[in-house]
Amino acid sequence: MSAAKVTEVVQAIQTLFSSSNASSKSEANLWLQQIQKTPEAWSLAAELLGEQNNSVEVHTFSAQMLRNKVVADLRDLDTSRCFELRDSLINLLYKFRSGPNLVKTQLCLALVALALQLKEWEDPVNELIQMLGGSPETAGCLLEFLTVLPEEINGNQKIPMPRQEYIERSGQLLTGNSEHVLQLLITSIQNSGSDSDIQVKLFTCLRSWLQSGDISVTYFNESPLPDLVFKALESEELFDIAVDVICEIIDESRETEECIPLIGRLRENFKPLKEMMKQTDLEDRDRLKAFCRIFTEAGEAYLELIVENLERFRDVVDGILECVNLPDLDTVPMTFYFWCSLASRLQQINDSDTRHDFQEIFFSLVDIIIKQLHYPYNLDDWTSEDREDFMNFREEISDVLLDCCHLLGAENSLARPYTLLSNYIANPDNAQWQDIEAPLVALKFMAAQVEETESVIVPKIMKLIPHLPSHPKVRTASTLVISYFSAWTAEHPEYIPSQLDYISAGFEHPEVASAAAIALNYLCKDCSRHLVDYLSQLHPFYLAAAKSLTQKEMLEITEALAHVISAVPLSNILPTVQTFCFPISEALNELLSKGTYTPEHITEISDLVERIGVFLEYIAPEELYFGERSPVASLIQDLWPLFERLLVSFSSEPIVSESLCVCLKPCFVYYRQDFIPLLPSCIERIASAFRNGGLSCYLRISKIIIEEYAENVPESRPTLFNLLENLSESMFKIAQNKRFTDVPDVAEEYFMLVTAFLSKLPHMLLQTPMLSSIIRCGIAAFGSDYHRVLTSVLEFFTKLLDLMKACSKEPAVVGLSQKIICDLGADFVRYLLIGMVQTFSLDLVGDVGNIFVLLGELYPEENQNWMVGTIDQFPPEALSAGERESFLTEYHGAIQNQHKRRLGILFTEFVTQYRRKNFDLLKGRND
């Protein structure tokens, strides 16, 4: 290669690594990517690596380029040139034996790729051991090669080899050499003296081979290696890699009969390991996490052996228990899977003696968990992120607590936090709020395992709650305990008055109000039949609460009251719900009378509408006879003028429109028949609202209308079709003025709506000229990079083509749709394939494959031509002639045989290879 070209490449590399100009770096990167694909790249890389004065960046890039060429383009070289390349790589490796390490690693990776593909190189591993292993100078090179060998063979999917050939060759290189490599590593470790640098490399290499599964740990039964690696934990320099190796050995030896001697040897090390962990400074979190990793790996690997003989593995279990007690909340969750697995396994065992052996451990675990549920005594330094992390930790550890409760029994489990609370109440001077709040949280979590018939501990808890301190955190936790035991209260209604008083008092404290709203909701839902007589007391409370509580809290209370109203005798439901809803509608009418609205007014209107929606959602009597009019229908009729006014006035206000659509949903779902007289007016208003505001919620509610009425109310079908026409007309205008990436929610909801119409009333849509515009709209959506939009569009086209196939013998039904697809087929295939290779996620490839199979069945000849025309438009640098021919051959075969799975694999491979090859081109286009 000319000196000028070499200089140009060096300058491009320097720009890539050093320039502060993003555009220049991008251009340099694209240019270098293209250079690497040329045949001259072989000699260029060698020349750049051979020049001693080049920078580290140039040497690193050149080594990477050489490795990439070996991976992707080795087939361009004949056998003799491959051996020349091998010798050149070994010489370069010797040259860079002292570094830089990045260059050395890339050269070793290139050697691995060469060894894998060059079958004529009969024994590369032993040759390199002989060549590089005899001198301390090159020992580092050998270890680097042996380290990356299993990693690259098992991890690099880019190497182009037939699968069977790949399996055979990798077996020769790895499995065939594993025993020799292991013996070499053990001997080297024993002879390494105090050279921690070489020891780290030796253990790193061992880890790599263990992770690959190519070294059988049965070799360790009589080997000194387990003792050597546990001994390495005492070295600061070796600690991290020793932990990795120990965990790999444990994982590979999990519960196999052949490894029992090895497991016995490993077991002897856990007692000193436990002592080592106890002596570690609690501030050294990384070290403690490493110990925890070893113990939990052992616990999970040897679970069955632990269950069979706890005493033999007591050090492992106690070590894991110690880990739960650590202060670092990032470390503790590492143990959760073990405890859940152990509890689950013990629950499957009928042997009471075995379960009894573990009882003490699980009681200790419960006590430790309650301790870990404590808020810190000093919260001054806590950030909002710390609080969020702590709450997430509580939720995680609750699953372990539930498993303990299930294993020990509710009474035994509940007694632990109850005893703590009783002691704190008896000695209040010795307790801070954190000490009381944690056991209450434990009780809340345990509630899921408590039967409604429990009569020993829960009554004591309920009697104890009113005597707890009034600290907001304690009050919040105790209120939530009541909510979580609401199913129990339903069977013990004598506790309702005191609980209702306690919950109601909580609304007086702003910090407790949210918990009180949740508790009232749970209590009313589970105890609705017992609370009907309390509605007269709850009504003034509800009206007053609206003045002080947040919307979230009001929705909780509204849902709570709706549950109670639903339990009112049928004849009294209407006046009861009117009592609660009419004050809300009056407040809405008062706001609407203002004529002009501030943002605060709009939020208040949305909130009030949302509350009415909650009442309509949850007051749906289940005891109506067929055809009987719901008493709530009269309320809906009374409210309709208000809803109509809102649809007209607030069609462009997202929060009001969302609330209104949520409010209207139960009208169509639960009161379908009763709403029929209002349906034409409602549909007209919804279509107008979408035309004016373009909000996706109107498409969503229209979909619900179609799903509810299309089949159940046949006389409504012309009205429903008019709704689709009007919405589509508005949608087409949106598509002309905006990109789908700007309105993804609208695009998604629109195609979900059209798919619903196709499912319910296929013949009406298949025979309308409007279908052409809908399909054009769908083709345009292929350019979207929003997954949900693409999913919605692909589902529509799959449904459409499926129906056309099912009705193919009914020309009167599908004649028009067949012509539309035929006219638009070339564009359809082109944009679908381009979208698939550029932006679609791979999980959508199967859906695309189904569409092409359906196209092939409906249009066998045209489909082939459409695909050829599309593939021919790909530029040669993006898709070579050979790649085109190969793809089209495979595609035609899969289509002719209607082989969906084969087509899915073909598309996945095509997209993956295309994106890998043209990554920078695609990235530049997306940028």
Q: TL;DR of this structure?
A:
It comes from Basidiobolus meristosporus CBS 931.73. This protein has 927 residues and is mainly alpha-helical. It is built from 50 helices and no strands.
3D structure, described in words:
The protein has 50 helices and no strands. With 927 residues, it is mainly alpha-helical. Among the domains are: 1-173, no CATH class; 410-543, de novo design (two linked rop proteins) (Up-down Bundle), CATH 1.20.1440. The radius of gyration is 36 Å and the shape is flat. GO terms for molecular function: small GTPase binding.
DSSP strand content: under 5%
Could you tell me the number of beta strands?
0
State mean pLDDT (0 to 100 scale).
91
Q: Which range best describes the helical content: under 10%, 10-25%, 25-40%, 40-55%, 55-70% or over 70%?
A: over 70%
Count of helical stretches: 50
Which class best fits the helix and strand makeup? mainly alpha
Keywords:
single chain, 927 residues, mainly alpha, de novo design (two linked rop proteins)
